[in-house]
Write a structure and sequence with these properties.
Length: 207
Protein backbone atom coordinates (compact mmCIF):
# COMPACT_ATOMS: atom_id res chain seq x y z
CA UNK A 1 0.00 0.00 0.00
CA UNK A 2 2.83 2.41 0.80
CA UNK A 3 4.32 1.79 -2.64
CA UNK A 4 0.95 2.37 -4.30
CA UNK A 5 0.37 5.70 -2.53
CA UNK A 6 3.94 6.81 -3.22
CA UNK A 7 3.49 6.06 -6.93
CA UNK A 8 0.15 7.95 -6.98
CA UNK A 9 1.77 10.99 -5.35
CA UNK A 10 4.63 11.03 -7.88
CA UNK A 11 2.11 10.70 -10.73
CA UNK A 12 0.04 13.60 -9.36
CA UNK A 13 3.14 15.81 -9.07
CA UNK A 14 4.11 14.94 -12.65
CA UNK A 15 0.61 15.89 -13.89
CA UNK A 16 0.79 19.14 -11.91
CA UNK A 17 4.14 20.01 -13.49
CA UNK A 18 2.75 19.27 -16.95
CA UNK A 19 -0.22 21.57 -16.30
CA UNK A 20 2.13 24.35 -15.18
CA UNK A 21 4.09 24.02 -18.43
CA UNK A 22 0.81 24.16 -20.38
CA UNK A 23 -0.31 27.43 -18.77
CA UNK A 24 -0.17 30.75 -20.62
CA UNK A 25 2.40 33.06 -19.09
CA UNK A 26 1.50 36.70 -18.46
CA UNK A 27 3.50 39.74 -17.46
CA UNK A 28 1.54 39.67 -14.17
CA UNK A 29 0.96 35.92 -13.51
CA UNK A 30 -2.57 35.10 -12.36
CA UNK A 31 -3.07 31.40 -12.82
CA UNK A 32 -4.25 28.91 -15.36
CA UNK A 33 -6.16 29.48 -18.61
CA UNK A 34 -8.95 27.57 -20.31
CA UNK A 35 -8.56 26.08 -23.77
CA UNK A 36 -11.62 27.91 -25.13
CA UNK A 37 -12.22 31.60 -24.53
CA UNK A 38 -13.23 34.81 -26.20
CA UNK A 39 -12.51 38.52 -26.24
CA UNK A 40 -13.65 41.94 -27.37
CA UNK A 41 -11.18 44.36 -28.90
CA UNK A 42 -10.95 48.10 -29.56
CA UNK A 43 -8.36 49.55 -31.94
CA UNK A 44 -7.07 52.90 -33.14
CA UNK A 45 -5.02 53.00 -36.36
CA UNK A 46 -3.22 55.74 -38.27
CA UNK A 47 -2.64 55.70 -42.02
CA UNK A 48 -3.07 57.70 -45.21
CA UNK A 49 -6.06 58.08 -47.56
CA UNK A 50 -5.76 60.28 -50.66
CA UNK A 51 -2.28 61.33 -49.46
CA UNK A 52 -3.72 62.81 -46.26
CA UNK A 53 -3.65 61.68 -42.64
CA UNK A 54 -6.43 59.27 -41.77
CA UNK A 55 -7.70 57.59 -38.60
CA UNK A 56 -9.45 54.22 -38.40
CA UNK A 57 -11.47 53.14 -35.38
CA UNK A 58 -12.25 49.45 -35.07
CA UNK A 59 -13.89 46.81 -32.91
CA UNK A 60 -13.75 43.02 -32.92
CA UNK A 61 -15.44 40.14 -31.16
CA UNK A 62 -13.87 36.69 -31.33
CA UNK A 63 -13.95 33.14 -30.07
CA UNK A 64 -10.50 31.90 -29.05
CA UNK A 65 -9.84 28.23 -29.85
CA UNK A 66 -7.00 26.34 -28.22
CA UNK A 67 -5.11 29.57 -27.44
CA UNK A 68 -3.68 29.62 -30.98
CA UNK A 69 -6.59 30.64 -33.24
CA UNK A 70 -9.22 33.38 -32.97
CA UNK A 71 -12.26 33.61 -35.26
CA UNK A 72 -14.86 36.37 -35.15
CA UNK A 73 -16.57 39.45 -36.55
CA UNK A 74 -15.17 42.95 -36.92
CA UNK A 75 -16.06 46.46 -38.04
CA UNK A 76 -14.10 49.65 -38.71
CA UNK A 77 -14.78 53.27 -39.58
CA UNK A 78 -12.34 55.75 -41.13
CA UNK A 79 -12.03 59.45 -41.97
CA UNK A 80 -9.20 61.55 -43.38
CA UNK A 81 -8.20 65.18 -43.02
CA UNK A 82 -10.43 67.55 -45.04
CA UNK A 83 -9.17 69.22 -48.18
CA UNK A 84 -10.48 71.77 -50.70
CA UNK A 85 -10.24 70.43 -54.26
CA UNK A 86 -10.78 73.78 -55.94
CA UNK A 87 -10.21 77.41 -55.02
CA UNK A 88 -13.85 78.26 -54.33
CA UNK A 89 -15.19 74.98 -52.96
CA UNK A 90 -15.73 73.76 -49.42
CA UNK A 91 -13.43 71.29 -47.79
CA UNK A 92 -14.13 67.59 -48.36
CA UNK A 93 -13.30 64.48 -46.31
CA UNK A 94 -13.26 60.87 -47.42
CA UNK A 95 -15.10 58.77 -44.88
CA UNK A 96 -16.63 55.32 -44.65
CA UNK A 97 -16.44 51.95 -43.01
CA UNK A 98 -16.21 48.23 -43.56
CA UNK A 99 -16.94 45.02 -41.71
CA UNK A 100 -16.84 41.28 -42.06
CA UNK A 101 -15.17 38.32 -40.43
CA UNK A 102 -11.57 37.71 -39.46
CA UNK A 103 -9.30 34.90 -38.41
CA UNK A 104 -6.15 35.32 -36.37
CA UNK A 105 -3.42 32.67 -35.99
CA UNK A 106 -1.43 33.27 -32.79
CA UNK A 107 2.21 32.20 -32.66
CA UNK A 108 3.58 31.02 -29.27
CA UNK A 109 0.50 32.27 -27.35
CA UNK A 110 1.76 30.93 -24.01
CA UNK A 111 4.63 33.39 -23.90
CA UNK A 112 3.98 36.81 -22.31
CA UNK A 113 5.05 38.50 -25.57
CA UNK A 114 4.13 36.84 -28.85
CA UNK A 115 2.99 37.44 -32.44
CA UNK A 116 -0.44 37.20 -34.06
CA UNK A 117 -1.44 37.50 -37.74
CA UNK A 118 -5.01 38.80 -38.13
CA UNK A 119 -6.66 38.73 -41.57
CA UNK A 120 -9.93 40.58 -42.22
CA UNK A 121 -12.23 39.83 -45.16
CA UNK A 122 -15.36 41.91 -45.72
CA UNK A 123 -17.28 44.62 -47.57
CA UNK A 124 -17.67 48.33 -47.00
CA UNK A 125 -18.79 51.70 -48.26
CA UNK A 126 -17.03 55.02 -48.79
CA UNK A 127 -18.29 58.54 -49.47
CA UNK A 128 -16.98 62.06 -49.93
CA UNK A 129 -18.46 64.39 -47.31
CA UNK A 130 -18.56 68.13 -47.98
CA UNK A 131 -17.95 70.27 -44.90
CA UNK A 132 -19.92 73.46 -44.38
CA UNK A 133 -18.49 75.72 -41.69
CA UNK A 134 -20.73 77.59 -39.27
CA UNK A 135 -19.90 79.80 -36.31
CA UNK A 136 -19.11 77.08 -33.81
CA UNK A 137 -19.43 73.77 -35.64
CA UNK A 138 -19.03 71.99 -38.97
CA UNK A 139 -21.71 70.07 -40.85
CA UNK A 140 -20.79 67.04 -42.98
CA UNK A 141 -22.96 66.26 -46.03
CA UNK A 142 -22.16 63.00 -47.88
CA UNK A 143 -22.26 63.29 -51.67
CA UNK A 144 -20.53 60.74 -53.94
CA UNK A 145 -20.37 57.19 -52.56
CA UNK A 146 -19.36 53.69 -53.63
CA UNK A 147 -19.02 50.15 -52.26
CA UNK A 148 -15.95 47.93 -52.12
CA UNK A 149 -14.62 44.55 -51.05
CA UNK A 150 -11.72 44.58 -48.59
CA UNK A 151 -8.98 42.17 -47.50
CA UNK A 152 -6.73 43.43 -44.70
CA UNK A 153 -3.88 41.27 -43.40
CA UNK A 154 -1.72 42.41 -40.53
CA UNK A 155 0.92 41.41 -38.00
CA UNK A 156 0.74 42.28 -34.30
CA UNK A 157 3.18 42.12 -31.40
CA UNK A 158 0.97 41.17 -28.46
CA UNK A 159 1.53 41.45 -24.70
CA UNK A 160 -0.29 39.29 -22.14
CA UNK A 161 -0.79 41.98 -19.49
CA UNK A 162 -3.12 40.12 -17.11
CA UNK A 163 -5.47 37.17 -17.22
CA UNK A 164 -8.22 39.27 -18.80
CA UNK A 165 -6.29 41.95 -20.72
CA UNK A 166 -3.95 42.04 -23.70
CA UNK A 167 -2.32 44.94 -25.53
CA UNK A 168 -0.79 44.90 -29.00
CA UNK A 169 0.86 47.12 -31.57
CA UNK A 170 0.39 46.21 -35.21
CA UNK A 171 0.94 47.02 -38.86
CA UNK A 172 -1.65 46.31 -41.59
CA UNK A 173 -2.25 46.64 -45.30
CA UNK A 174 -5.76 47.44 -46.52
CA UNK A 175 -6.44 46.06 -50.00
CA UNK A 176 -9.76 47.02 -51.64
CA UNK A 177 -11.42 46.75 -55.01
CA UNK A 178 -11.33 50.01 -56.97
CA UNK A 179 -13.86 52.72 -56.13
CA UNK A 180 -15.33 55.36 -58.47
CA UNK A 181 -15.86 58.85 -57.02
CA UNK A 182 -15.53 62.42 -58.20
CA UNK A 183 -15.04 65.62 -56.19
CA UNK A 184 -15.51 69.07 -57.78
CA UNK A 185 -14.59 67.69 -61.19
CA UNK A 186 -11.59 65.75 -59.83
CA UNK A 187 -11.78 61.95 -60.26
CA UNK A 188 -10.24 60.14 -57.33
CA UNK A 189 -7.83 57.26 -58.01
CA UNK A 190 -9.57 53.90 -57.93
CA UNK A 191 -7.10 52.60 -55.33
CA UNK A 192 -7.51 55.60 -53.00
CA UNK A 193 -8.36 53.34 -50.02
CA UNK A 194 -5.45 50.96 -50.42
CA UNK A 195 -2.45 51.41 -48.15
CA UNK A 196 -0.60 50.67 -44.93
CA UNK A 197 -1.66 51.62 -41.43
CA UNK A 198 -0.40 51.04 -37.92
CA UNK A 199 -1.75 51.41 -34.43
CA UNK A 200 -2.67 49.93 -31.07
CA UNK A 201 -5.24 47.40 -29.90
CA UNK A 202 -6.77 46.62 -26.51
CA UNK A 203 -8.28 43.17 -25.88
CA UNK A 204 -10.47 42.22 -22.92
CA UNK A 205 -11.86 38.77 -22.34
CA UNK A 206 -11.16 35.20 -21.31
CA UNK A 207 -7.87 34.01 -22.77
Amino acid sequence: FSGFFAFAQVDEETNRDNRRQDEIKTIFPQGRRNAVGGYGELSLLYGSIDQRDALTFGARGAVLLGHSMAIGLCGSGFINDPKAYSEFSERVSITGGYGGFFFEPIILPRFPVHVSIPVTVGVGGVSVARIYEYNDYDDYYPEESDAFVVVEPGVELEFNITRFCRFSVGAYYRYTTDVEMEIDGVTLPGDVLKGFSGGVNFKFGKF
